[in-house]
DNA sequence: AGGTTGACAAAGG
DNA sequence: GCCTTTGCCAACC
């Protein structure tokens, strides 16, 4: 499994995220066996027409991490999939989080 | 071969 | 409860 580049393993994992759910960098990182930062790094390296639903990946708080205009696109796509955001622009990970068993801490 | 960077996270103040 | 500092580890220069 470790034969492929790390970012490709990460992308494969993110593709596994069901529609209408969101995961976190830390969770994905733990699943692929690397640090959360590498997940974010992999996202930044994604091509535009990628098949990876990168918009389903949020930080551990359930907020969008990116600081560019793409954040707006990300939020819109998630809302279109049924993910609701709080007033502060945060999604409820305990509700939409994935995987469900590995509940993230509500910070 | 070495130093810098970064779509994060957890701990400390 | 918010802001700052430290740790992480792969990719890039």
Structural overview:
It is built from 5 helices and 2 strands, in the order H-E-H-H-E-H-H. It has about 110 residues and is mainly alpha-helical. Strands 1-2 form a two-stranded parallel ribbon. Helix 1 (about 5-15) crosses helix 3 (about 35-45) and helix 2 packs across helix 3 (about 35-45). The termini are far apart. The mean pLDDT is about 85.
Structural category? mainly alpha
Low-confidence parts: none
Order of helices and strands: HEHHEHH
Broad shape: globular
Percent helix: 25-40%
Average pLDDT reading: 87
Total E-strand runs: 2
Percentage of residues in DSSP E strands: under 5%
Largest beta-sheet details: 2 strands, parallel
Spatial order of the strands in the main sheet?
A: 1-2
For the termini, the CA-CA separation is 33 Å
Radius of gyration: 13 Å
**Tally of helical runs:** 5
Structural key phrases:
107 residues, mainly alpha
In short:
The chain has helices spanning 6-15, 25-32, 36-44, 70-80, 93-96; strands at residues 23-24, 57-58. The chain is 39% helix and 4% strand.
Layout of secondary structure:
Blueprint: H1 6-15, E1 23-24, H2 25-32, H3 36-44, E2 57-58, H4 70-80, H5 93-96
Parallel strand pairs: 1-2
The structure holds a DNA duplex (13 and 13 nucleotides).
């Amino acid at each position: 499994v470790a034969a492929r580049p790390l970012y490709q393993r990460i992308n494969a994992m993110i593709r596994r995220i069901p529609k209408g759910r969101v995961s976190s960098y830390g969770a994905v990182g733990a699943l692929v066996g690397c640090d959360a930062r590498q997940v974010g790094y992999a996202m930044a390296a994604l091509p535009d027409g990628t098949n990876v639903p990168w918009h389903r990946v949020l930080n551990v708080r359930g907020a969008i991490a990116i600081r560019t205009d793409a954040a707006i696109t990300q939020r819109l796509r998630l809302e279109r999939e049924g993910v609701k955001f709080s007033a502060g622009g945060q999604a409820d990970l305990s509700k939409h989080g994935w995987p469900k068993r590995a509940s993230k801490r509500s910070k």
